[in-house]
Description:
This protein has 11 helices and 4 strands; from the N terminus they run ααααβααβααααβαβ. By secondary structure, the protein is of the alpha+beta class. The chain has a 4-stranded antiparallel beta sheet, sandwiched between helices. Helix 3 (about 40-45) crosses helix 10 (about 190-215). The longest helix is centred in the last third of the chain and has 25 residues, at about 190-215. The N and C termini lie far apart (about 65 Å). The relative contact order is 0.18. Residues about 1-25 have low confidence and may be disordered.
Amino acid sequence: MVSPTTRRAICGRVGYAAAVQSKPSVKQYWEEAPPTDFEAFATVVESRRSVRRFADEPIPDEVVERCLDLALLAPTSSNLQCWELYRVVDPAKKQALVEACLSQPAAATAAELIVAVARIDTWKRNARDILRHLERDVWTWPKSMHAYYSLITRIAYDNGPLGLLGPVKKALVSAVGLVRPIPRGPTSRAELVTWAVKTTALACENLMLAFRAAGYDSCPMEGMDEERVRRILGLGRDAIVTMVIGAGRRRRGGVYGPRIRLPRERFVKTV
Ligand SMILES: Cc1cc2nc3c(=O)[nH]c(=O)nc-3n(C[C@H](O)[C@H](O)[C@H](O)COP(=O)(O)O)c2cc1C
């Protein structure tokens, strides 16, 4: 009979089982980087265009759901997943949404309409749920991760009732910033909105590339009445409508012209 101590000692040398049973510091997570096809990815990126007219053809349900799953794999600030994607399928809501999108053809002809919403009010709940994950995972996360989700996120993203703590935080970080690097925000509602919208926009790009990779197309729209969209979805003011994405099968005339990009040197700087 092998004693638990001996078993732990043996396991300590043989990898995963060891990770589960032995000292926390032994558990080291490793994920293979599978081979990828750069040219296939480039084709997806290069052939994604904003398509304004779609064929009268549905996108199979499983394709849409898979694309939504891929959208949620976008990187997210502090992994707080401050996004929501509303796939609008109810005909009355869809019609109202088309009108809220100013009846743009990209909305009116789309087989699918997805509203990407950034949330500035869900980070506390999500931080709590991530903490639960950390606690029940077999992998030992560094202690700093626990501290991050139980404390640091509060300091970083909580501006107190009515945002009253924001100016105090701003003064503090400005003072500390004089002597050492420190993240400067978000210290106001506006900065929190920017924070959430950044992450949500990344999910949007994932979604549009996913549609393209599946053979379909999309058009992002911010030409819409955000207030009306919020009302259609029954959302409050902490839900920031980031964009509406129309998707479907590209139709002749759906791409208005060749892609225009200004000179690369204007945008890419090597310093
Ligand atoms: C945030 C955002 C909002 C946009 N809103 C609209 C819109 O309301 N209507 C529209 O037809 N295109 C919209 N577009 C598409 C842009 O016009 C398009 O991306 C741009 O002209 C470049 O063309 P390309 O996407 O084919 O490369 C939007 C794009 C982005 C990123």
